[in-house]
Amino acid sequence: MAGAAAGRAGAGAGADAGAGAGADAGAAGAGGGVGATGAGADAGAPASGNGAAGAACDDVVFDHVCKSYGDNRVLRDVTFRLPGGGVTCLMAPSGSGKTTLFRVLLGLEDAESGSITGVRAGEVSMMFQEDRLCETLTPVENVALVLPPATRRADVQRLLERILPADCMDRPAMQLSGGMRRRVSLARAVAFPSKMIVLDEPFTGLDAATKRTVVDFLLAELRGRTLLVATHGDADAELLGGRRVSLADVSAA
User: Fold this and answer.
1) pTM of the model
2) How far is Cα 86 from Cα 219, in angstroms, rounded to an integer?
3) Which of 30, 129, 166, 171 is most buried, with most CB under 10 Å away?
């Protein structure tokens, strides 16, 4: 597992930046790049099918993954397969170990045994349960953190306006509602050029109509990428239309 974790360390770092955990450090530089224009600007547009997302995705295989914190065994021989390019809903209540499993996937935690194969460094983007936004930056600037410096503000704004009101684009994240913050965080994970997107309880704070809009946006922007969504709601899984995997069923008793 040590080799697998090391191989995914870059993926975890890239995903953490893509999802916002390390975004504060790069806020000034990445935010400053928004609004750049010129002949090369189109190449940096947040078309989430670009880059790694344009290539075929391998199956992602979790093979007997175990993780403990002291005497607390959090993951017990977790074993399942994610079809490449497919949508999978990981059905797991809070406290069941799903966030720990994601951190192992990203290389942010080392498993004691087992392996995860099928993803490489920089190929995973992550939306955590926490929004992890830069509070003084606008929605456009937060998403731009994971995009090339030449990306045009107008391109990022067009992406966001599909799931957010236009009048919130110039507000700092600290002034956004909880549901708006979740949508910015999700858009940032989607915009990052990845082969796999992992979303941890992405629909918290969204009403039914907004949730439907966000799901339509997410599925349209997958463009062949593998999607893993953690939820404990059957209605959310139904909306996404993917296969369901119970974390309890793929773990040892």
Assistant:
1) 0.81
2) 10
3) 30
